[in-house]
Amino acid sequence: MMSLFPQDIISTAEAIIRDFTAAGLMVSTAESCTGGLIAGALTEISGSSAVVDRGFVTYTNSAKIEMLGVQAETLLRFGAVSEETARQMVHGALFRSRAEIAVAVTGIAGPGGGSAEKPVGLVHLAAKSRAGTLIHRKMLYGDIGRSEVRLATIRTALEMVRTLYAT
User: Fold this and answer.
1) Residues 6+ away with beta carbon under 8 Å from 34
2) pLDDT at residue 1 tops 80
C-alpha cells in the first residue's frame, strides 16, 4: 500500500495502534511545527479510530492558549519554542481529551525563523501519561530542510509515545 509517510514511521505507527488497541488505550496529539502530521501518521493505519482520540493543531500562540490552555505568561517569558510551552501543550492535550497518553511538539522547521538562541531545527517535544509520567526532549536536528525536520520530529514523537506505553 502506498503511504504518505516513510516505512519506518508507518511501522512505528502500526506498533502504537496495535499495542494501544490491545490495551484499550487512546492517544492525543498537540502539534505546532508538524501541523497535524503526527496524528496523520497514526491515522494512516487502519483501525486507528479506536486509538486516536483527537489532534490539536496549534500553530499560533493564540491557538495554544485557546485550545490547550498554555499560559500567555509562558509564551511571553519562554517563547512558543520552549520546554515550558511543550509541557503545557501536552498537559492541555491530555486533559482536553479522553487519551491516556498525549504528545506535543513545538519547534522551528525552517528554512527561516531561527535565531542564535533558537536555531532552525530546534524542536521541543513532551509526552505525558495520565499516571503523571512526563518525558521532555530537546532536539537539535539542524538546518536539514523543513520536510526533514518535520519527519524527524514525527519519528521522535512516536518513539516517545511508545516509551510511555512501555512504562
Assistant:
1) 105, 150, 153, 154, 157
2) no
What digits encode the pLDDT tens for the residues 62-73?
999 999 999 999
Supply the angle between the helices 146-166 and 7-23 in degrees, to the nearest 10.
30
pTM of the model: 0.97
Strand, helix or coil at 27? strand
Smallest CA-to-CA distance from 99 within 150, 48, 63, 65 is with 48
Q: Which residue do the cell numbers 511508545 mark?
A: 162
Looking at residue 139, its amino acid is: M
Determine the Cα–Cα distance for residues 163 and 49; give it in Å rounded to an integer.
21
Distance CA 87, CA 108 (A): 17
